[in-house]
Amino acid sequence: MIRALLVDDERIARVELRRMLRAHPAVAVVGEATDAEEASAAVEKLRPDALFLDVEMPGESGVAFARALAGEMRVVFCTAHSAFAADAFEVNAVDYLMKPVSPAALARAVSRLTASERPAVEHLPMDFAIMLKFNDVSRVIRLGEIERFESVGNYVAAHCRLGAALLVGTIARLEKRLNPKYFMRANRAEIVRIDAIRDVESDVGGGLVATMESGAKCEISRRQAQSMRAQMAVL
Question: pLDDT tens digits for 76-86?
């Protein structure tokens, strides 16, 4: 049984989510809160196993509150604002539900919550929506559409068909959220989507140079090249 706390400043949203969770007997709603301050008190008193947490609330945001918990409990974000999706890179969220929450999406989140063995870090699904800004225009891009990530100081540049957009964070933190089945660390500064590699050729020093779908060139370090050769039979 998962003991859950619902945190949302909209009463209607809490009522609807509570109603939908009745279809999932593995989850028991033990309390509700309208903002981070109330949620903090409720967490201290009720010690829930999981939070269904709104992102945008009066005062402290849901992301900031979840970050402060430092992994104490599982978090499922619920929000109507896809612009906040990129913040899930920084918080080990079990799932990220868009309002209005669909029964199928909720069932997926509950399944992840109740899994007997949960990975220390949840990999983001390839259809994860990220709001990226290109020349002052924000666009929703799916994780599976991003060709590669590149470290740029205190930011990470996400490269896709529309160009490059910056995310706050480090390449090391981002790598933990990406599924190694689909992404690989090419070198100290870059992560590439494996199926976006068009071809590879040998480089001096035992490394490889990958040509991406966009035509961009990416160096694959000697260490990573050895692993890639073994996995993909690259000569």
Answer: 988 876 555 55
Among 83, 113, 143, the domain-final residue is: 113
Contacts of 76 (CB under 8 A, 6+ apart): 50, 51, 52, 53, 93, 94, 95, 96, 97, 109, 113
Among the residue ranges 25-29, 186-190, 224-228, the one predicted with the least confidence is 224-228
Domain assignment of residue 122, yes or no? no
| Helix, strand or coil, per DSSP, at residue 151 | strand
Contacts of 89 (CB under 8 A, 6+ apart): 124, 167, 169, 173, 174, 177
| pTM of model > 0.70 | no
Question: How many domains is the chain built from?
Answer: 2
How would you class 103 by CB atoms within 10 Å of its CB: exposed for 0-12, middle for 13-18, buried for 19 or more? exposed
pLDDT at 120 over 80: no
